[in-house]
Structure formats: C-alpha cells, structure tokens
C-alpha cells in the first residue's frame, strides 16, 4: 500500500504545525531535513509532543556531524518521547558541507555509514559497546576510556539510509531498515533498487525488508508542461552546486539514469554563472517525473508509476500557502483510489 509522508519546510512553528494538520488528513509520516541551517533532531522532538500516530523521521542527519553514540542517545530520547515512532534517517552529505561547514574530513563515506549503524545497533541492543573500526574505535586505544552500556536501551532504532551511489545503495540493502531516496524517477527505478536488492540478498534479506521512500514535490495545476519546466529548472542548483566539481552524487545518479550530457551542460553553465541558462538546460522529464505535478489524472498516473516501481512511501514536499491542506487532502483521495486498485508486480 502506497503511503504519503510530508517533508517539513523549516523549523518554524508555523511550518511544523502544518504537520499536525497533515496527521488529521491521514498522512503517515513527517520527515525533517537537515542541511546547513536548521538541524533535523530538534524539530523531531517538537513534533513528538504534537502528534499521536504519525511516524517521525530525519531525512537526514549528516553522518560525521555527531558521534554514533550521540546519534544513538538522541534517537533513544526521541523513541521514548514519541512512544516508538521515530526513524533515524542518515546520510553522508558531501565534501562541501562536511569539510566546509562541519570541519570533518569527507572520506570513506560508506565505511562511516556502516560503522555508525553497527555502533548504534550495539547501543540500542543494550550491549556493552566495544568497537574497532576504520573510522571509529570505542573505547579509544591507549586512553582512560572504558567500554560502557546504555542503561536506557529500551527501544530499537530503525535506521534509514540516504544513499545514491551503488556501494552505499548495496549497504542500504544489507543493513538499513529503509531507503531515503531522492532524484528518483520511477521509470529508472532499477538504477537504485537493483543495488539495494543485491545488498539485501547478500545479507539473507529481500527488498521487501527495506521500506523504499522517495521525495517528490506536489503541485496541482492545469498547465502541466509549464509546471514541469519550472520544477526542472529548480534542479539546476542541485546539479550545479550540490557537490564539488569532483564529487556530486546527484550528477552521478542522473548520469546513470541517462541524463549525462544534460548534466554536464547544466554544471558547465552553473559554474559559468549563467543560472537562467542552467535551469533551461535541465530536461523537463526530470521536473515531471520526480514530482507529482498536473491535474488529478496526471498525478494519479504518477502515483501508479511509483507504486508499480516498488515505492512504499512518497515524502511529499509542500509549500506553506493557503492551498496546502486542500492540496494534501486532494492527494490523499487520489492515493486512496490508487491503493484500491490491483498493482503491477514491484521491480
């Protein structure tokens, strides 16, 4: 069954209070982003006290900005506050943010993810923590530290991984309870889901063991093409600026989906300072197929495409405006219709 989550726009009270209204509409989950402004965990604590049944997830905390133990402590607190509704969504971010904002070297991102998950699992299980890895070693060698056990490890901590590259996608399948997908086109789902499936099967699991969540914007409009063009132009920043010239996971993902030449042109124009031309160079398919855009028939078709590709939850980004709740209610009606149909086998 296809579920809908809402992405919080910011940490303002007005934005977060929209989540409580969305819960009344039947929205299943709320997802709190983290970039280089608001953190992802503080709003989750606020929402834990303002919601009753909705799942609350980070999408996603930046690994390396906090120690694995601090992440575990925060997650255990949020699990207790929400009565077990919290999801720890995590990702490695990229070199510009980690090295420029946090002052943490961006190296061995897949190893950092693996070791973080393993340490958090130790803590959440109530084990005495002892770990020897490449990135983390607990206790520190030749130190006064000692192996410790959390006295409050009463909750499991579901961990969802934001991954784009093949190695990290395989790790998601091996160790994650869910995937935080972005830049996702249902028509190219195998680019992401095949490596996740490979990782899951290598660990004796299946793709069904991992909740597949993907991000999408929402816009009801009679002019689908114009809206698609506008949404496509918005991806110029992601393609041109979200990463360094050497490391841009979005560009690599779009290239694997067949947009390599367009991505190179967008990045070139962005680097040259021609933002308008960069936006115009983003293929309209990216704007139309990574979002829920158009009239009821258009959006119903996209919902079916997500469902048939194997998506479990769509994390819907919405603007804060007078139409927001009406649009969400309209979307939920369309989701109910699609969920009432028989679906094609998932990939």
Task: Report on this structure.
There is one protein chain. By secondary structure, the protein is of the alpha/beta class. The chain has 2 domains: 3-221 and 295-339, Alpha-Beta Barrel (TIM Barrel), CATH 3.20.20.30; 223-293, no CATH class. Helices cover 48% and strands 16% of the residues. The chain has helices spanning 13-24, 41-48, 68-82, 95-102, 109-124, 166-175, 190-202, 224-241, 249-271, 275-281, 284-289, 296-309, 324-339; strands at residues 3-7, 29-32, 55-58, 61-62, 86-91, 128-129, 131-132, 137-138, 148-149, 159-162, 178-181, 211-220, 292-294, 313-317. Strands 1-2-3-5-10-11-12-14 form an 8-stranded parallel barrel, surrounded by 6 helices. It has a two-stranded antiparallel ribbon with strand order 6-9. A two-stranded antiparallel sheet has the order 7-8. α9 packs across α10. It is globular.
List the helices and strands and how they pair.
Blueprint: E1 3-7, H1 13-24, E2 29-32, H2 41-48, E3 55-58, E4 61-62, H3 68-82, E5 86-91, H4 95-102, H5 109-124, E6 128-129, E7 131-132, E8 137-138, E9 148-149, E10 159-162, H6 166-175, E11 178-181, H7 190-202, E12 211-220, H8 224-241, H9 249-271, H10 275-281, H11 284-289, E13 292-294, H12 296-309, E14 313-317, H13 324-339
Parallel strand pairs: 1-2, 1-14, 2-3, 3-5, 4-5, 5-10, 10-11, 11-12, 12-13, 12-14
Antiparallel strand pairs: 6-9, 7-8
The number of distinct helices, counting runs of at least 4 residues, comes to: 13
* Nearest-integer average pLDDT: 94
CATH architecture of the largest domain: Alpha-Beta Barrel
CATH topology of the largest domain: TIM Barrel
Helix content: 40-55%
């Amino acid at each position: 069954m296809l579920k809908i989550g809402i992405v919080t726009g910011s940490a303002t009270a007005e934005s977060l209070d929209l989540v409580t209204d969305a819960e009344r509409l039947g929205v299943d989950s709320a997802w709190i982003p983290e970039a280089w402004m608001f953190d992802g965990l503080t709003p989750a604590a606020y929402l834990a006290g303002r919601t009753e049944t909705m799942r609350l997830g980070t999408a996603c905390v930046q690994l390396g900005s906090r120690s694995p133990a601090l992440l575990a402590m925060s997650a255990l607190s949020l699990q207790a506050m929400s009565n077990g509704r919290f999801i720890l969504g995590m990702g490695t971010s990229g070199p510009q943010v980690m090295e420029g904002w946090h002052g943490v070297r961006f190296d061995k991102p897949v190893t950092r993810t693996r070791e973080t998950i393993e340490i958090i699992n130790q803590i959440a299980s109530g084990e005495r923590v002892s770990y020897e890895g490449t990135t983390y070693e607990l206790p520190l060698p030749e130190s006064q530290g000692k192996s410790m056990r959390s006295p409050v490890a009463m909750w499991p901590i579901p961990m969802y991984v934001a991954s784009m590259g093949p190695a990290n996608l395989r790790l998601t399948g091996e160790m994650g309870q869910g995937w935080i997908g972005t830049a996702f086109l249902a028509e190219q789902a195998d680019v992401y889901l095949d490596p996740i499936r490979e990782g899951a099967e290598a660990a004796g699991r299946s793709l069904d063991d991992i909740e597949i969540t993907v991000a999408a914007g929402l816009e009801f409009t009679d002019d689908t093409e114009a809206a698609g063009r506008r949404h496509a132009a918005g991806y110029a920043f992601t393609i041109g600026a979200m990463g360094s010239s050497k490391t841009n996971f979005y560009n690599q993902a779009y290239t694997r989906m067949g947009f390599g030449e367009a991505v190179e042109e967008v990045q070139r124009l962005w680097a040259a300072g021609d933002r308008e031309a960069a936006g115009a160079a983003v293929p309209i398919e990216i704007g139309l197929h990574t979002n829920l855009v158009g009239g009821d028939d258009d959006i119903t078709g996209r919902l079916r495409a997500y469902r048939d590709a194997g998506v479990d939850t769509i994390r819907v980004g919405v603007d804060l405006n007078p139409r927001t709740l009406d649009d969400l209610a309209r979307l939920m009606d369309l989701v109910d219709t699609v969920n009432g149909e028989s679906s094609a086998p998932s990939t």
